[in-house]
TrEMBL record:
<dbReference type="GO" id="GO:0003777">
    <property type="term" value="F:microtubule motor activity"/>
</dbReference>
<dbReference type="GO" id="GO:0005874">
    <property type="term" value="C:microtubule"/>
</dbReference>
<comment type="similarity">
    <text>Belongs to the TRAFAC class myosin-kinesin ATPase superfamily. Kinesin family.</text>
</comment>
<dbReference type="GO" id="GO:0005875">
    <property type="term" value="C:microtubule associated complex"/>
</dbReference>
<dbReference type="InterPro" id="IPR019821">
    <property type="entry name" value="Kinesin_motor_CS"/>
</dbReference>
<dbReference type="InterPro" id="IPR027640">
    <property type="entry name" value="Kinesin-like_fam"/>
</dbReference>
<dbReference type="GO" id="GO:0007018">
    <property type="term" value="P:microtubule-based movement"/>
</dbReference>
<keyword id="KW-0963">Cytoplasm</keyword>
<keyword id="KW-0547">Nucleotide-binding</keyword>
<dbReference type="GO" id="GO:0005524">
    <property type="term" value="F:ATP binding"/>
</dbReference>
<feature type="binding site">
    <location>
        <begin position="88"/>
        <end position="95"/>
    </location>
    <ligand>
        <name>ATP</name>
    </ligand>
</feature>
<dbReference type="InterPro" id="IPR036961">
    <property type="entry name" value="Kinesin_motor_dom_sf"/>
</dbReference>
<dbReference type="Pfam" id="PF00225">
    <property type="entry name" value="Kinesin"/>
</dbReference>
<dbReference type="GO" id="GO:0007052">
    <property type="term" value="P:mitotic spindle organization"/>
</dbReference>
<feature type="domain" description="Kinesin motor">
    <location>
        <begin position="6"/>
        <end position="346"/>
    </location>
</feature>
<protein>
    <recommendedName>
        <fullName>Kinesin-like protein</fullName>
    </recommendedName>
</protein>
<dbReference type="GO" id="GO:0051231">
    <property type="term" value="P:spindle elongation"/>
</dbReference>
Length: 350
């Protein structure tokens, strides 16, 4: 098909926190409706346009229905490579948007109203597979990139480091990663919660539960068309389609001075910021007209290698920019909005 915008950026503005309200922070971000968001502060007055903007009072269900997530699930079943990634400053609500409350576990499930894009997508995927009457084989893999090491979050024992390889047929891939089959909503949610609990997190001045790694959960969908038993067909006439639905929870960008990080936390922050910078650089180059591309430096980080297919190849991507409305977070908020604006200009051939 002809080239089409494949990076659909949406914006979610979280509410002011109790700490921010007590401190007297002003609200400098306002939704204007129709996908427009306005930032107004001293020396800064800017309006940005996106596919959709969700204000602080938007429910998790509203974000799922209004983001185009349901269509993305359907395209993954049809054999497309689909990616959702949440990005923004640390503490801006990325993990909450994707997964829901941090306190949930298998013994303490979250309230259904608070579940994030991931669980809602899993439910949609399983509903679709039943209603379509096709044979779907579903499996999941779950990785984190911590200090430029790729680690498997589903393999038994402590997370083990896996090598990242490249081949002409597969592109960049992780060698020996565990892929676990599932057939029910309970099974895939259990894998999600198990893996998430093994992910590296720490507390600092901006966020008591800061993700210190980028996490990628990929659903592999292999579908085989259903044919009437009365019709005899050659095996080659029963094509299978292989799609993927990848959820990427990026570690938050942060200024070490603001978070008060030192020692190991500071090393982690620098590693996170370097990989996010590499991702931003790739997106900036991809946003240029196709004839002006020279070289897209996917090899600059493990993150950009793993997202190469989603960003510049044959994938379809939903980008969820999470921002704080607080005056104190103004510079990071503007940075996130500029990042998302550039992504709107990236095109692909899915």
């Amino acid at each position: 098909t002809s080239a089409s915008p494949h990076a659909r950026p949406i914006v979610r503005v979280r509410p002011l926190t109790c700490t921010e309200t007590r401190r007297g922070d002003r609200r400098v971000v306002h939704s204007l409706g129709d996908g427009a968001v306005h930032v107004s502060a001293a020396r800064h007055d800017a309006t940005f346009g996106f596919s959709a903007v969700f204000d602080a009072d938007a429910s998790q269900e509203a974000v799922f229905e209004g983001s185009g997530m349901r269509q993305l699930v359907e395209m993954a079943i049809d054999g497309f490579s689909c990616t959702v990634f949440a990005f923004g400053q640390t503490g801006s609500g990325k993990t909450y948007t994707l997964m829901g409350p941090l306190a949930q576990s298998e013994t303490q499930p979250a309230s259904p109203a608070l579940l994030g894009l991931m669980q809602r997508s899993f439910a949609c995927l399983l509903e679709q597979s039943q209603s379509r009457g096709s044979d779907l084989a579903l499996s999941a893999s779950y990785l984190e990139i911590y200090n430029e090491q790729v680690r498997d979050l589903l393999s038994p024992g402590p997370p083990c480091t896996l090598p990242l390889r490249w081949s002409k047929t597969r592109g960049f891939y992780v060698e020996n990663q565990l892929s676990v089959g599932f057939e029910s909503l309970e099974a895939i949610v259990s894998l999600l919660l198990q893996g998430s609990q093994r992910r590296r997190t720490s507390a600092h001045a901006l966020n008591r539960h800061s993700s210190r790694s980028h996490a990628l959960l990929t659903i592999h969908i292999c579908s085989r068309a259903h044919y009437s038993p009365n019709v005899v067909l050659q095996p080659s006439a029963c094509p299978s389609k292989q799609g993927t639905l990848c959820f990427v929870d990026l570690a938050g960008s942060e200024r070490v001075k603001e978070t008060g990080s030192s020692g190991e936390l500071s090393v982690e922050a620098n590693s996170i910021n370097r990989s996010l910078l590499a991702l931003g650089h790739c997106i900036s180059l991809l946003a240029k007209p196709r004839g002006k591309w020279t070289h897209i430096p996917y090899r600059d980080s493990k993150l950009t290698r793993l997202l190469a297919r989603s960003l510049g190849g044959s994938g379809i991507t939903l980008m969820v920019a999470c921002i704080s409305p607080s005056s104190r977070c103004l510079s990071e908020t503007l940075s996130t909005l500029h990042y998302a604006s550039r992504a709107r200009r990236v095109t692909t051939r899915p």
